[in-house]
Fold this protein.
Amino acid sequence: MYSKSAKSIDHVAIAVHSIEDSASEFEKLSGHTCSSVETVESQGVRVAFLGSIELIEPLSPDSAVGRFLERKGQSLHHIAYQTDDIYFELSKLAAESIELIDHEPRTGANGHLVAFIHPRSTGGILTELVQHSE
């Protein structure tokens, strides 16, 4: 049975130094063709999708993703879950004492609403909620 809080995985994000240099490897692995690259200035990244894999490249080394790459190298950056009501989810999670990075959603790739949950509340994994714009 579906509940309002049931979510499916929307995508997994991989931090990379260069989308162009990494895309062919992920095309071979996933069987998907890389989408066009989109710049999301508000998050300091360039992004592209291969099915449910998102490649994220920092716009500068001092951005959050740039610092992540410096510390951890190219690797899994976050897991994103799709929701139909991001405002409800954020309110529910805050009421359950889940540490939110974003208390209000912001515009992410493809114009979708996104919000991040702090890794301290999710077993060390940065987690994103995504509400698709239709």
Observations:
- DSSP finds three helices and eight strands in the chain.
